[in-house]
Each structure stands twice: as C-alpha cells, then as structure tokens.
Amino acid sequence: MKNLPKRICIYPKDIEVVTGKSYRQCTRMLLAIKAKLNKSEEQMVSIEEFCQHTGLKREEVEPLILG
12-43, pLDDT tens digit by residue? Predict the structure, then answer.
C-alpha cells in the first residue's frame, strides 16, 4: 500500500475540527495568523505556523486533520 502524501497547509475546516469554533471564527483566525506573518491573502498557512500561533503541538493536531 502506498503512503499517502501529507498536507502541509491548514484550512478553516481543519481548524474547526481542532478548536470546535465556527467556520467564520476559524477564517478570522487564519486571517490573523496571515497578518502576523506578513502573508498576503493568497498565501497558505502551514500546520506548523498554525501550531506556533496557537501553542498546540503538531503531534496533537495532525491526527485530527489528517486521519
């Protein structure tokens, strides 16, 4: 069986699963992370950047969004 490639970017729906917040709140959270990192709206936020911003551990987040 092939190993499936892992994603490195995070979407509002993923944040919804991790935090339990609404989709709109998660969208705002992503925008705040992008602003803090000086990224444009078109650029993606990585799972690592999300974890650094929220203080969560990558090992805790990945199984929720990739599994």
Answer: 999 999 999 999 999 999 999 999 999 999 99
CA distances from 33 to 4, 36, 47, 49 (A): 28, 5, 11, 8
Can you tell me the distance from the alpha carbon of 6 to that of 31, in angstroms, rounded to the nearest whole number?
23
- Distances in Å between the alpha carbon of 28 and those of 1, 11, 55? 38, 11, 17
Q: How far apart are CA 48 and CA 22, in angstroms?
A: 21
Residue pointed to by tokens 């090992």: 59
pTM for the predicted model, two decimal places: 0.85
Hey, which residues does 46 pair with through a beta bridge? 9
